[in-house]
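Weekend entry, working from home. Most of the wet-lab plans are on hold until the incubator is repaired, so I used the time to fold the two sequences that have been sitting in the queue since the last round of cloning. Logging both here for the record. First:
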Amino acid sequence: MVKRGSDRRPLYMQVAHNLIKGIDTKQFPVGGLLPTEEELRAQFNVSRHTIREAIRHLRTQGLVSARRGVGTRVEARNTEPRYSQSLPSLAELAQYASETVLDVVSTGRVTADAGLAEQLGSRAGKTWMHVQGVRHAADKKGVTSWTDIYIDKAFGGVTKDIGVRRVAIYTLIERKYGEGVIEIQQDIQAALVPKERAVALGVSPNSPALLITRRYFGSGGRLIEVTFNLHPAERFIYSMRLTRDAVRKSA
């Protein structure tokens, strides 16, 4: 049975963690089948939807495969480190920050020239705090990204806590300055790993990557933070679920 209340992770992640532990300890050996959905639902006392989400997570890790009429087969005990992220809400974005570790490489102050201002989506001449680092999974088994963080200098006091406290930076800003994030704009695009980042990421120069840019806006549309996360292609999966808007029919 999963913990409720004391564990802040989504239920499906708690179930997935237990199943991964079972695979690692050979409770569920490679080549064998996991218990059925109904058996897992009863074991963990969760909904069928939760079980299916947990299995989906294991599939994205390459640990299991599922075939209709056969079941869920264990394919491996471990895989090449990669991170699967699903971010339908601010809460889960904060969870991502708590489940990963950022090793800060450098911290400094930069005044945006025309080129940087265009990248950030801000005006030229504005001063930002610039933090660079390498992000790992919580167990530090693999690097998940190179991260560039730009913070409005008015909130620069939070830089001393970055990499020390495993919480989202916008949460640090809100706690210290009372400036809450109202909106996040996110862009995802294909990219190549530049030579100067290849060693830190442990990949070849010009290898494929995923670049995720997030712009955080506070009250009045003020841009308070921008992050660039460069993920080696084979180590990161970004997943999202789209649902059709409900259609109301008038009587």
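Second, folded right after the first finished:
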Amino acid sequence: MAYKSLKVKAPGSIMLFGEHAVLHGHPAVVCAIDSWIEIELTPREDSLIKIISDRLGEYSCDVKQMIIEPPFQFVLAAITAFNIKQGITIKIHSQFSPQWGLGSSAAVTAAMTKILSDFTEQQLNANELFEKSLAIVQDIQKVGSGADLAASIFGGVLSYQTQPQKIESLTLDLPLSLVYSGYKTPTTEVIKFVNTREKKAPSYYQSLYQAMGECSKLAIDAIKKQNTGTLIMAMKNYQGLQTALGVCTEDLRALIMAIEEYPDVLAAKISGSGLGDCMVALGTLPEDAFSTTKTKQLSITLSTQGVSGYE
């Protein structure tokens, strides 16, 4: 067992294509972004698990009496998964608010899995980190494709699919902009909402997922061929499919239309499960064009680096 302090960071992520359909085996496009969750682990001489987060506050308990509960359920589940028996202090610094989404749960899980792998001297490779992290997330959420986890662990722009599992690196040279809608519905609640609607019209929803999958394939091919026109069409089409799915409210639709009015924006759509979340735009927005009391414009750049140690 290692007994020194360790530091690990993992990037947040955004979905470009594949929301919801990725849960049904269809491909997605996900991107790691240059906004990070940083974790420092320090061993203790007692049996206390102490978590200190600059965004979510503090938590402490005895390692033998640990209960996995919000808001640190992913941190605590990772500690349980690695069968940690001694006291540790976990300090978490996030460069972005968990209210914005951006794959925060995946990023903190990836960082915890990496740091506990190092702490217990298991030294898991990237594929092993992904599988371990995915098991933790699915144990907590009971559902999850792992697309955002893949971005946080491997970095870059990825084509991702669960059935069969496929992770492929892509190169996207076009600028992206992000606008937070002002609210976010938890992903698990959105999935329940969609599932309830699907039960009333299963054939219709299966056809939507199929169309989403074909749209994602079109986008992946366009990215590979650097075909901007096809990528624009795919993004607009996918947004239409998200609307048909029922996850685009009137205010989100109005926000997307407002974003697309700017001359340097080629297309925009919901990035994430919907009923809130961020809107991602292909192109650039003027500085602070959407920074209001409700919405927030986020400056993003893509990250080629995934989860890693740092000094």
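Plan for Monday: verify the second prediction. The domain at 176-298 is CATH 3.30.70.890 (Alpha-Beta Plaits).
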